[in-house]
C-alpha cells in the first residue's frame, strides 16, 4: 500500500501553492498568462527544481485541453537536451540561466557545444513529430559548473501536421513564415530560432530586434535580402504577398561581415539556417551533419524517439473527460532516468 504524501500549503504573490512536503524554499521566478513558476529545493535529493502551476487548468474545455497536451508532451520527451518531467505537479529540473542572463562574450567552442545540444534536442523533438515553436535555449549554468542545455516550455508545441497560428514564437526569434502566416509551416521554423540564437551568442546582441511584426520582417529582409517572385508565389496570405512586394530592395548581407567573430564553418552553418525560404532551410538532422560539428558528434546524443500520439490534439471533448484523461496520464507517469553525459564536464561557463 502506497504511503500517503503530505502536502504543504503557502501563498506566494497572491498565488496559493500546495505541493508535496519534500519541496521547500519556494520562490516565484516567473508568471504568465497560463501559469506561474516557482523554484524549490527537493529536501530528499537536494536538487533544485522548477515547479509550474497552471492557472485554472480546468476552467474550460480549451484550458483543459492545453493542460493535457503539455502534460502528455512533457511525459513523452526522454532526451538529455529536452526538459524532463519529474512529478505530476509539473516539477522540472531548475535551469539556472538563459541566454539573456549570460554575461560576457562566449567563446566559439562554447557556442558550438550549445548549438550542438540545441540541435540534438530538436532532432529528438522533431523525430517524434513535434514542432517546438519557442525560443529554445535554457542553460544550466551554476557558476563554474557545467554546460547542459535543455529545451523547455511545451505549452505551445504542436504535432508537425497541425495547422498553426502566427503568434507563437517570441517575436525576435520568429521565423519569417510565422510572421507571414503560412498555416502549414514545417519543423524548420525551430531551426530559424536556433540560427537567431547562434548569431546572438556570437554578436552579444539580438539579431533581429523588430518593434512590431512588420518591422520584424523588415529587419530580417535587411539581412537575408528581399525575396524574388518564386518565394512570393509560395505565400498563401494575400496581405503578406502585397507587403513583401511593397518592400524596397535589400541586398543579402555578407554573413562573414555580420558575424566577424565566427569561424568560416560557423558562418556557413548560419547561412544555411537563416534562410528566408523554409523549404531551403536545414533540418535539425542536416544541421548536425554539418562539418561545424565534426569531432562533437556522438550517436548516443541522438536516441530515436517514439512517435508522439496526437490523436487527442484536435479532439473536442467535455471538461470532465479532459480531467479524466489528465488524471490517467498522471497516474501512469514514470520518471525518466537522466543520462550522465560523458562530455558535460568538458566545458564551463564563467
Please describe what this structure looks like.
This protein has a domain at 97-322 and 340-346: Transferase(Phosphotransferase) domain 1 (Transferase(Phosphotransferase), domain 1). The protein has 11 helices and 11 strands. It has helices at residues 61-76, 108-127, 176-179, 188-203, 213-224, 229-234, 238-246, 255-258, 264-273, 284-288, 319-331, and strands at 7-12, 15-20, 23-31, 35-42, 48-54, 91-93, 97-98, 130-131, 138-140, 148-149, 158-159. A 4-stranded antiparallel beta sheet has the order 3-4-5-6, with no helix packed on it. It has a 3-stranded antiparallel beta sheet with strand order 7-9-10. Strand 1 and strand 2 (15-20) form a beta hairpin. Residues 23-293 form the Protein kinase domain. InterPro entries: Kinase-like_dom_sf, MAPK, MAPK_HOG-like, Prot_kinase_dom, Protein_kinase_ATP_BS. GO terms for molecular function: ATP binding; MAP kinase activity. This is mitogen-activated protein kinase.
Helicity range of the residues? 25-40%
Going by helix content, strand content and strand pairing, the class is alpha+beta
CATH class of the domain at 97-322 and 340-346: Mainly Alpha
Task: List the uncertain runs.
Answer: 133-148, 151-169, 344-350
Mean pLDDT: 78
Give the full name of the CATH homologous superfamily of the domain at 97-322 and 340-346: Transferase(Phosphotransferase) domain 1
How many distinct helices? Answer: 11
Largest sheet: 4 strands, antiparallel
Second CATH tier, the architecture of the domain at 97-322 and 340-346: Orthogonal Bundle
Protein name: mitogen-activated protein kinase
Binding site for ATP: 53
Family: Belongs to the protein kinase superfamily. CMGC Ser/Thr protein kinase family. MAP kinase subfamily.
EC number: 2.7.11.24
Amino acid at each position: 500500500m502506497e504511503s500517503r504524501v503530505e502536502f504543504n500549503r503557502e501563498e506566494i504573490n497572491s498565488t496559493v501553492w500546495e505541493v508535496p512536503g519534500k519541496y521547500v524554499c519556494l520562490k516565484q521566478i516567473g508568471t504568465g498568462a497560463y501559469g506561474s513558476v516557482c523554484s524549490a529545493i527537493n529536501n530528499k535529493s537536494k536538487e533544485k527544481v522548477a515547479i509550474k502551476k497552471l492557472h485554472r487548468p480546468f476552467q474550460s474545455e480549451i484550458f483543459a485541453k492545453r493542460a493535457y497536451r503539455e502534460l502528455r508532451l512533457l511525459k513523452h520527451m526522454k532526451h538529455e537536451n529536452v526538459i524532463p518531467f519529474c512529478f505530476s505537479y509539473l516539477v522540472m529540473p531548475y535551469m539556472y540561466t538563459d541566454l539573456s542572463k549570460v554575461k560576457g562574450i562566449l567563446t566559439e567552442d562554447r557556442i558550438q557545444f550549445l548549438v550542438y545540444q540545441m540541435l540534438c534536442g530538436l532532432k529528438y523533438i522533431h523525430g517524434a513529430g513535434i514542432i517546438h515553436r519557442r525560443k529554445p535555449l535554457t542553460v544550466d549554468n551554476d557558476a563554474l559548473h557545467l554546460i547542459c542545455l535543455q529545451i523547455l516550455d511545451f505549452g505551445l508545441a504542436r504535432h508537425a501536421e497541425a495547422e498553426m497560428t502566427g503568434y507563437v514564437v517570441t517575436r525576435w526569434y520568429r521565423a519569417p513564415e510565422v510572421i507571414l502566416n503560412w498555416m502549414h509551416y514545417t519543423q524548420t521554423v525551430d531551426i530559424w530560432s536556433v540560427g537567431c540564437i547562434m548569431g546572438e551568442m556570437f554578436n552579444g546582441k539580438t539579431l533581429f530586434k523588430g518593434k512590431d511584426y512588420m518591422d520584424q520582417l523588415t529587419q530580417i529582409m535587411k539581412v537575408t535580402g528581399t525575396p524574388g517572385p518564386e518565394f512570393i508565389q509560395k505565400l498563401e496570405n494575400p496581405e503578406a504577398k502585397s507587403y513583401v512586394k511593397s518592400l524596397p530592395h535589400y541586398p543579402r548581407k555578407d554573413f562573414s561581415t555580420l558575424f566577424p567573430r565566427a569561424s568560416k564553418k560557423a558562418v556557413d552553418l548560419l547561412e544555411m539556417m537563416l534562410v528566408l525560404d523554409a523549404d531551403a532551410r536545414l533540418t535539425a538532422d542536416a544541421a548536425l551533419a554539418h562539418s561545424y560539428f565534426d569531432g562533437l558528434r556522438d550517436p548516443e546524443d541522438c536516441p530515436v524517439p517514439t512517435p508522439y500520439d496526437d490523436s487527442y490534439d484536435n479532439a473536442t471533448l467535455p471538461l470532465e473527460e479532459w480531467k479524466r484523461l489528465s488524471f490517467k496520464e498522471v497516474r501512469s507517469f514514470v520518471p525518466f532516468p537522466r543520462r550522465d553525459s560523458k562530455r558535460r564536464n568538458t566545458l564551463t561557463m564563467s
